[in-house]
Write a structure and sequence with these properties.
2 strands, Cyclin, 57% helix, Cyclin A, domain 1, Cyclin_PHO80-like
Length: 256
């Protein structure tokens, strides 16, 4: 059963400076769980997925919400770090969709969801370093046709974007070895994945408070519409908060 957000957030709307970490975890897990569910259906339908360095061979048993709670507790995350990580995910999506088809490597793999992925591309599994990996392909990150998150990759992607987000937004952060241990992967792998995200984004990491607030507000609006199906109650809740009209950019978060 999914957790419910606080009455303060429902009544007052999303305010980055005062929203609590528990509410943000609920909102983020609501968003990401729904996106993952939709993309998993595509995998089930086609029995194929694109292999990237973020794939795990098996689907982790821990839920997205529990994983976020673990990361928040063990690495002292603030609410804004999680929202910032969502913004970075959106930018990764935009960047990878812009890659021209002719520059992409065909890296599809057959998979019988939810079974283990039996094949890993030698393109990156044999590379001993990030530099060696990209020397095997190109500098344009051609493994990606969009940045479609699913049950096989969401945990590694979340861990990596949160690691980056805390470093760029907080005065205090941990070594990668700590994030890796908490997240359940090796330090070497996290170092590799961090570089992968940074180069996908071309180090475009600056995010305004306004952008974070807009994203948080958009997720909250969608959450209310989903959790409170009574039209009159939904309208009343949305009207009571400080909601801005959703713009086209904020809508991107629901279409990974």
């Amino acid at each position: 059963m999914q957790s419910r957000i606080s009455s303060d957030l429902l009544k007052g709307g999303f305010k980055l400076e005062s929203v609590n970490i528990k509410d943000v975890i609920i909102l983020a897990s609501f968003l990401l769980t729904n996106i993952v569910r939709n993309n998993d259906l595509k995998i089930i339908s086609t029995q194929k997925t694109n292999l990237t360095p973020f794939n795990s061979k098996t689907i982790p048993k821990i839920s997205i919400e529990s994983y976020l709670e673990r990361l928040a507790q063990k690495t002292d995350l603030n609410a804004d770090v999680i929202i910032l990580a969502i913004v970075l995910l959106i930018r990764c999506k935009s960047r990878t969709l812009a890659i021209k088809d002719e520059n992409k490597v065909q890296n599809e793999c057959s998979v019988e969801y939810p079974n283990e992925i039996q094949f890993f591309s030698s393109t990156y599994s044999s590379a001993e370093s990030y530099t060696a990996f990209h020397s095997l392909i190109t500098s344009e990150n051609p493994l990606y046709s969009g940045f479609f998150i699913n049950s096989y990759n969401i945990h590694r992607i979340l861990l990596t974007t949160i690691t980056i987000a805390q470093k760029i937004s907080s005065d205090f952060f941990y070594k990668n070895s700590c994030y890796a241990k908490v997240g359940g992967i090796s330090t070497t792998e996290l170092n590799f994945l961090e570089m992968e995200i940074l180069f996908i984004l071309k180090f475009n990491l600056y995010v305004t408070k306004s952008e974070q607030t807009n994203i948080g507000t958009a997720i909250l609006r969608k959450y209310i519409e989903s959790q409170y199906p009574n039209p009159l109650k939904t309208i009343r809740l949305i009207s009571s908060g400080t909601f801005k009209k959703a713009d086209s950019k904020s809508k991107e978060i629901f279409t990974f």
